[in-house]
Amino acid sequence: MSNQFARFSIIASVLTLLLLVALNILSPEFDPAWRMVSEYANGNYGWVLSLFFVCWGISTWALAYAIWSEPKTKAGRIGLYFLIAAGVGEVMAAFFDINHSLHSLASFIGIPSLAIAAMLISKSLVKEEAWASVKKNLLLSANLTWISILLMAISFVILIVTFTQSGAEMPTDSTTVTALPAGVIGLVGWVNRFLVIVYNAWVIFVAKHSIKI
């Protein structure tokens, strides 16, 4: 049964990434360099974004079920609950889009929870003989989760600082901005998408190896 859920997790994660690609193609009006993934809700394909978040949450929950008995340490077991919480945040984002007051809460729950889960679970798994062969890659994929959060924070700071230096007035609503003023460095959108890829890559990696053991 656990192998079935691991495979289901992989399928759901792959669908999540394919839906992200689809959103970039279907809504080219949202510049991926500085538009966040959640902003696709304001386009004509909000339902695709909702499906994206649902698949993401399902992949996370399926992984939690698939590896439930794997982490042996207390920290690893705690990590499983953070993994469940991450899925909650991801599914919440499907029902509460960027225009809803609860979307920020969904992000606050989902984004850090997955990174915490990845670190706690991975550090627990590498202590087991069955996971020793993938120790280096497992820890690398886990560390990339919090690194992606750090990069997103840095890219936000760069966006705000360069926006201020450009002399343009900072908008209170990003939907009113159609193009960035000259001199403004917009990388936050790419970093946001990098985070999605990294998060799903960790899920796929763990799920795939759990099938082999």
Number of helices: 6
How large is the share of residues in beta strands? under 5%
What is the domain tally? 1
Shape: elongated
Q: What separation lies between the terminal Cα atoms? A: 14 Å
Instruction: Give me the secondary-structure category.
Output: mainly alpha
What is the H/E order?
A: HHHHHH
Helix content: 55-70%
Main beta sheet: none
Low-confidence stretches: none
Mean pLDDT: 94
The value of Rg in angstroms is: 18 Å
Number of beta-strand segments? 0
Task: Report what the structure shows.
This protein has one domain (2-212). The model has no long low-confidence stretch (mean pLDDT 94). The longest helix has 31 residues, at 135-165. It is an all-alpha fold. Helix 2 packs parallel to helix 6, helix 3 (74-95) runs antiparallel to helix 4 (103-125) and helix 5 packs antiparallel against helix 6 (188-212). Helix content is 69%, strand content 0%. The two termini are 14 Å apart. The protein has helices at 2-26, 46-66, 74-95, 103-125, 135-165, 188-212.
